[in-house]
Amino acid sequence: MAKREPIPCLIVDDEPHARQALQNALARHPEVEVVGLCENGLQAVKAINEQRPQLLFLDVQMPKLDGFDVLELVQEQIPFVVFVTAYDQYAVQAFEANAVDYLLKPVDPERLAKAVEKVVTRVGMEEPSRLQSLLADPVRERELLRRILVRDGSEVHVLAVDAVMFIEAADDYVAIHTADATHIKLDRLSRLQKKLDPRQFCRIHRSYLLNINWLARIESESKDSRIAILTDKRELPISRSGYGNLRKLL
Amino acid sequence: MYPLFRTPNRLIATLVGWSLFSAGLSTLVSGITDIPLARSLELFAPAYFLWLLFLIPNYYLCRALPLDKGAWTTVIGTQTVILLITALIWALLGRGYALILDSLSETVPYLDYFSRALFTNLVVFAGEYEFFVLLHYLFIALQRGRDLEQQALQQELLTSKAELRALRATIHPHFLFNALNVLANITDSEPAQARHFCLRLADFLRYSVAYGNRPTATLGAELEHVQNYLSIERERFGERLCTDIEVDDNLLEIPAPSLMLFPLVENAIKHGIDSCIEGGCLKLRAEAGDGRLHIEISNPVDELGHKRQGTGIGLISLRQRLKNRYGDDATLQTCREADLFIARICLPLP
Known about the structure:
The structure holds two protein chains of two kinds. Chain A is of the alpha/beta class. Chain A folds into two domains: 7-135, Rossmann fold (3-Layer(aba) Sandwich); 144-249, CATH 2.40.50.1020. Chain A contains eight helices and 15 strands. Chain A has helices at 16-26, 41-51, 67-74, 91-96, 109-124, 131-135, 189-195, 240-249, and strands at residues 7-12, 32-38, 55-58, 80-85, 101-104, 147-152, 155-160, 164-170, 173-178, 182-186, 201-205, 208-211, 215-222, 225-230, 235-238. In chain A, β4 (80-85), α4 (91-96) and β5 form a beta-alpha-beta unit. Residues 132-140 of chain A have low confidence and may be disordered. Chain B is an alpha+beta fold. Chain B folds into two domains: 3-150, no CATH class; 171-348, Heat Shock Protein 90 (2-Layer Sandwich). Helices cover 64% and strands 14% of the residues of chain B. In chain B, a hairpin with a 2-residue loop joins β6 and β7. Chain B is rod-shaped, with a radius of gyration of 36 Å. Chains A and B meet through α1 of A and α6 and α8 of B.
């Protein structure tokens, strides 16, 4: 095999000993080069955005953003992922996310060698994992969201679902409006709607998903034209079918 | 439902028995008052049968007027008034019935018979009424005893469930996995620390496992146990976890339920410190005051730090254990103050 550049990789783990141990173990594998250690998901998103490593050794259970959250936020920027976790309960989910491999802690050096080998083969075939398509699968998460993650460059915002007033569709993006800010997220309104509590969020219009807790009143301009007035006086159009949805909910 | 009517068999038996009783009493009254037997049966047997309808409602009155409240005068007074009213109603109804019989017959003086036997009948009715009152109170008392017994059994079951849960949480596999990871990671790089870590882990497990044989420990032993736990978690959390524990030395010998502090400290770590990206400080204070032991554990929490919220099962089972042990004398309260989660235990001092 021709000599190639080492694969730049990041280690993401909230436990200091775990980061250190993995870094030490990887020192024996010249095929990969550790270019950074991240203590949490926020640092990981930032580092991935700025350093564009090819490979991620990713812990699942971390504060604020877990491993899957990190992938959701940087899916298009990271080609290869190896999950490293103490529990095997995430294995199926990890492989659904098209991870190259799934290592259990404590990491067995032989098992790590195999994972590195797999990565090298995949990089050699120049076949990036299709993280995005699989992560976009709506059935992957059946649990209702408590929070919505949005990324703005290297910065991550964690929005409480209750603080979201309404979500607006805009091409391939959605604009998530809270009382004091608007965040853009690469997602589809219908897909997001499926993950939100249907008793709280109502599709009042093809382009608007409203959190009914922020609805102050409904005004009708004519028989088929109604407007939702939010608690901060903002106005949103209500379509005819949207009015039907709203009435069912209220 | 009236106890005697709860099954069809009982209902039939009651009705048959009461019919026989009515006939028997008619015979007896005929002897006392010198009324011919056949006339007495015609006149009084249906009237006595009617008593049943007057006596049954008394069961609900007895239930509404329990004896244990100590209000004897109220009970006696109310029962007497009701007795007089029912007796009056019965006498009027009986007289009406006698009038009807009287108008149907030329020769037999039913009304006269009725008046002649009225005093005797009222005395018997009053006796009967008192008998039923006693019967009903006796039945209610028996029932209460059975209910209490059942409640006690249920309580016991809850206690052992809560204790089992507490024990299981202590030796949660995730905790052991995490500890083993730390150990695997530091054995090469820091052998002395690894050895220390093993000792703390062994102490921690020993205390947890011995729980079943030792429901009461001391506050000092409890503190040592959570210190062992914290020293294990500190290896995992690194700089994200700081602890601040202040307890007066003279409180260390105070008896306390085993594994009382652990679920609170574990909660503080799992749902508190670990939800904060920068971690935080766990504070534990214990002090005596007003003849009670006050323990307060506080930690920062980031509500959006985890995908899922905790189930709160650890707190529920601890609260149950305290209740089983101290009744209403011990409290466990939790609250949020800004970004802090605070748990407070208050126990009676021995």
